[in-house]
Amino acid sequence: MLKAVFWGFHGVIINDDDIHPQLIAQLLLSENLRFNLEEYQEMYLGRSDRARLTAILQTRGRFVRDDYLDGLLRKKAEGYGEWLRSQPKLALYAGVDDLLYRIRSKQYVTAIVTGAQRADVEQVLTAAKLTDQFSLVVSASDMPVAASKPAPDSYLAAIDQLNLLNPELALTPQNCLAIESCFAGVEAAKAANIPVVGVAQIYPYHMMQRCATWAVDYLNEIDFDWIAPRYERGSNAATMEEKPAV
Question: Are the beta carbons of 241 and 195 closer than 8 angstroms?
Fold first, then answer.
């Protein structure tokens, strides 16, 4: 049965995709390196800051120490915080509050599993007063570069940690649902054997439909009354049966 709902962060909870390439471009400029937006969108969208910065620097012949990379990531987090504070209104996607309410009403455990830095997540959750809505956050700050999405490690780590917090939960991937908006996130969830709803908030619906278990245009279209029975029919039902929209 469905027991837990995992959220991505950038592109799922907050509409902030435009600021990240700008911040990375600024970091590269400070390193006397050139930023390529097409390269970023094609190769690095949906990956963690640490993974994409490491890859971008290496393609430009820069191999930096972990402590140096940590400094770059701190600068980016500071820039992200400045951007957040400059916004007249927090750019949460429509339907976040409603979906959290419906998750609580179903008594599902909920967590954030993201390639975002923990500092970014904490700043947004604090500003949105959503800190107490999630049982757990597994961020890029908690995982090595090799475990970044599209690797399944962060999802598997979330399951392990939730089981440590509540052994009676006995959570398995077949009890979970992921909500993702990028290909790397969808791939990570599916590699962990977790059914995934692709929400078309970054890519068009037809592209999400091709890669996710199910697809929706908006968060408020996620229908647990339709999804939950697919889990109750058997451990493989959720991944075997697809529907054009949930």
Answer: no
